Automatic annotation (TrEMBL):
SMART domains linked to this entry: Glyco_10
EC number of the protein: 3.2.1.8
Keyword Hydrolase: yes
One Pfam family in the UniProt entry: Glyco_hydro_10
Domain GH10: residue ranges: 72-385
Domain of life of the source: Bacteria
Top-tier EC class: hydrolase
GO molecular function, one term: endo-1,4-beta-xylanase activity
UniProt keywords, alphabetically: Carbohydrate metabolism, Glycosidase, Hydrolase, Plasmid, Polysaccharide degradation
GO BP of this protein: polysaccharide catabolic process
Classification of source organism: Bacteria, Pseudomonadati, Bacteroidota, Cytophagia, Cytophagales
Name used for this protein in its record: Beta-xylanase
InterPro entries documented for this protein: GH, GH10, GH10_dom
Amino acid sequence: MKKLLIGLIFSGFHTFAQTPRYDSLWKDPAVEKRIADGIEQNRKGDFTLLFPDLKGTAELEIRLVKHDFMFGANIFMLKGFKTEAENRRYEEVFKSLFNLACVPFYWKTLEPEQGKPRFAVNSPAVYRRPPPDVVLDFCEKNGITPKGHTLVWDNTDHAVPTWIPTDTAKIQPLIDARIRELARRYGSKIKTWDVVNEILKDHPHVPMPPEYPLKAFRTAQKYFPADTRLFINEVTTESWQNYHREYTPYKLLIDNLQYRGAKIGGIGLQFHFFSEPLHYSVVAGKAMTPSDLFRNLDIYGRYNLPVHVSEITIPALPAGPEGLENQARLTRNFYRLWFSHPAVEAIIWWNVADGTAVAGEDKWRGGFLDEALKPKPAFDVLDGLINREWKTNLKATVSGKSYFFRGFYGEYVAKITVNGKTTERRFSIHKNQAKAFKVTGL
């Protein structure tokens, strides 16, 4: 029994002993102040409701119904489960948390046979690849903003069709035609696109035309509507770890593309922990620290472009309650920091549920739902932040001609009750826009 007890103590020591250091970094008063101040300054604004016709008193109820800030995930499993009950559960959870959906446009599975793209609702089924028209219908019905991912990616496992020729001179016209077709069909419906993906994770065995990233931007700029935002997206290592101040490779890549005419409209920073050493270094407080994250966001914030934390996988490791708690704790800390930073416009979780990742990635248990689509502690964290802590819900008795409040940016519903009659009005609080709304007809 004594040997067993010693074994248990040492088997749990690796992660348990590291917790105090991790917690001390995130509970540091300076870090907490920067996060709290950033949320207050960057995500909230002052607003006044005006009641010129009000006589006497009114009961007022104010409710934020949609965030300006974008909270999202990939929507690769839409209509993709075996049962209708599972599909409904997935959709309900998605709608309850998110106002952004990352739509799959991977060339390999969108056009598995040349000239026969899977755009339409009745297209042949492919796992984790719902047809774009299916996704856009869901988004439109539920007020969710779609983001296209991705126009060009030199990855043969997921993006490069098997029918692509090996002659690079013949590939470029095919890329141009693909971008042109997507712009024609979806340019008016999807206003944010990842143009290129993971450029710095080169695949030298894949024949790609020279300067294909720059050419992709030029072609997208030519064919997509002028109000389209064209993003660049990069892997976790280059986005957060390979930091060299002004000589950070990802920064130099952006500088180079911009200098040569790429109208980059936003910067994507992936955040996958596809490594046990990385995960346990994070839990130990040795990697992805608050200072690391702020440092990187600050350098990309200098571009005055929207930053998307674009693909998030936070593992639930080790297996069991400890891993679930690790995932939840990391999720809360990371989301609060990202939400606080003025450059960040969107935070995009990757796989909603365990067991739905691409082959080889399910071992990380990176969903916030388990395989049965039941909530994990990380879901409770997200739901608590997005739907409660960062929601403005107020009730007040108004006796004057105005009511002042401070709330999170977004779309609101106000209910004003006077003498038993309730009037409902919708209004919005947006950064750098009008800060008052007049309610008449009371």
